[in-house]
């Protein structure tokens, strides 16, 4: 969320000395090689050992920190990298899983200070990983790769929940529900209602009036839908990734002219929480699918569930299909978009609410319309609205 440009080299060096204290070197020289709009800066340690790192830094804006759970979000991500994910990785290793879920950058550690949180990660760009263009829907190969990894991750979370219940409960209790905190500081009706109004206006000549009325009707159900999604006591629950739009995945490709994705890395674990895996999956698919792939969504859902069950088998679960039967998964699916990135610190300092970040006029109307139309049509055709 922050930027290394907000911090001096001396400040960065002091963070790295703390984070890399076990690496047994006397001094650290830092070279800042780049900075991204998402707030990740690259630092290179030129000591006895070279590191190519990404420093993810929180915003220092006091206005933002007073009006939104910035600190809690970073502490959430730190906890996921340093406690939850290592436990999941170790459990898979203990069970002899040959193709484990480990699709995250290596975390070297973290630093927390007054009005500052820093997470130090391996720089995946230096290993050939790339971001997908954020305004383009993912290709089917990318979709299949991500849902397969989600199936493996969710299955691992479920098994740890069953086989290490005391430790897992500690995780559940410690993970902050950032979305719940966010809803308490912002107007959810405005957050979701404004895009519904804007998309309804854009689609008024492309949809039957009956479908458009059903879409507009979602405005009156926002709180009900949100509460059900977050608090459904009957649904299967796991610790989620939580932030599933396409700019939170990096891909490693097979060499050659045709870009075939071989691996994916999941980024941004700040809004991880304990909820239904449908939350991850629906967010990802509705945010990242193309119009053509919506026609094959049933096949994609089956692919996810097959990966989920297959990973339960790898984790040595007897009768794995009984833990999350396909009919239960599809029923929960049935019960249950970031084109324009703004500076949320600027919004907070202007005196606006966090939800105002998403209430601006859509700039790229044609692209937005192209993306939202198949979503509304799918929702209508499958009685989701």
From TrEMBL:
Superkingdom as given in the UniProt entry: Eukaryota
Residue span(s) of domain CHK kinase-like: 119-314
Organism: Zophobas morio
Position of the signal peptide: none
One Pfam family recorded for the sequence: EcKL
Record-given protein name: CHK kinase-like domain-containing protein
Residue ranges crossing the lipid bilayer per the database entry: none
InterPro entries for the chain: CHK_kinase-like, EcKL, Kinase-like_dom_sf
SMART domains xrefs: CHK
PANTHER family: PROTEIN KINASE-LIKE DOMAIN-CONTAINING
